[in-house]
Amino acid sequence: MIFDTHAHYDDTAFDEDRKEILNSLKTGGIDLVLTVASSLNSTEKVLQLIEEYPFLFGAVGVHPESIDELDETKFVWLQKVIRDRKKKVVAIGEIGLDYYWNISNREIQKQWFSRQLELAKEEDLPVIIHSREAAKDTFDIIQLACKNAEKQGKRLTGVIHCFSYSIEMAREFLKLGFYLGIGGTVTFKNAKKLLEVVEEIPLERIVLETDCPYLAPVPNRGKRNSSLNLPFVAEKIAQLKKVTSKEVMEITKKNGMSLFRIPIELL
Ligand code: NI
User: Fold this and answer.
1) Kind of pairing between the strands at 2-7 and 30-36
2) Tens of pLDDT along the chain (267 residues)?
3) Are 217 and 229 within 8 A, CB to CB?
4) 243 alpha carbon to ligand 1 midpoint, in Å?
5) How far away, in angstroms, is 40 Cα from ligand 1 center?
6) Gap from CA of 151 to ligand 1 centroid (Å)
7) CA–CA dist 66, 40 (Å, integer)
8) How far is the CA of 95 from the centre of ligand 1 (A)?
C-alpha cells in the first residue's frame, strides 16, 4: 500500500468527481494521503476534507504564490487554526519560496516563509517546503530556523517537496534531517539531475508524492494526476535503487508515517 504525501484534493480540478476518485483510492493501492493546502481558502477546504475521509490527513499553510493574501490579521487566523488543530492536521505546508514565477516580492516571500517556519517550530509540526529556483535562499532560511530551534531545545523537520535541485543541495538538506519528496517528474525524459539524486540518497529519506492534479508521471504525463498514478513513480524509483517496487512502497510509507507522525490509532 502507498502513502501519497502530497496531493491537492481541494483543487477545483477535482470538483466534478472528487468523491469518486477518493473512494477509488483504496482499491488502487493507496491507503494514506496527505492533502496539502496552498492558501487560506484552501486551508479551510482541507480542514473539511480530512473530516470526511478517514485516510486523508492534512497540511495547512500559505504557498508563496498566494503569499500576498497574508497580513497580520490573517496570520493570527492561521495560527489559531494550527493551535486548535484537529489530530489529523499533521504538517504546515506548503510553504516556501518561488522565484520562477514572478509572483510576489522576494522579501515578502522570505518574511512569511520564516514566520510559518517559526510557527511550525512552536507547534512542533513538520513542514512541507515548496522551492523553485530558490535553492540557496530556501536552504539558508531553513538552516537558520533549524539552528534557532535547536538552541531552544526544539526541532524543525520536514520534506522538500518535488525536489528539483542538484545532488549537492540534496546532501545539504539531508544533513538538516529533511526528507525529499519524489513524484512524477522522476519519470520525465529530462529528469537526469533528479535520477542522480534518487540513485544516491538513501531510500529511507524519500517520500512518495503526486502533487496532483499536477505532474502526472509517464505514461500519463500531461493528464490530470491523482494518487492512482503513484505505482509508476514507485516502479521508476525501484529500477534506480535496484529493489522491488513493493519495497519502495513499504519503506516510503514508513518514512512518511514517521515524518508526519501519523497516529496509528487513527488508521
Ligand atoms: Ni503542491
Assistant:
1) parallel
2) 999 999 999 999 999 999 999 999 999 999 999 999 999 999 999 999 999 999 999 999 999 999 999 999 999 999 999 998 878 999 999 999 999 987 789 999 999 999 999 999 999 999 999 999 999 999 999 999 999 999 999 999 999 999 999 999 999 999 999 999 999 999 999 999 999 999 999 999 999 999 999 999 999 999 999 999 999 999 999 999 999 999 999 999 999 999 999 977 777
3) yes
4) 27
5) 14
6) 31
7) 9
8) 9
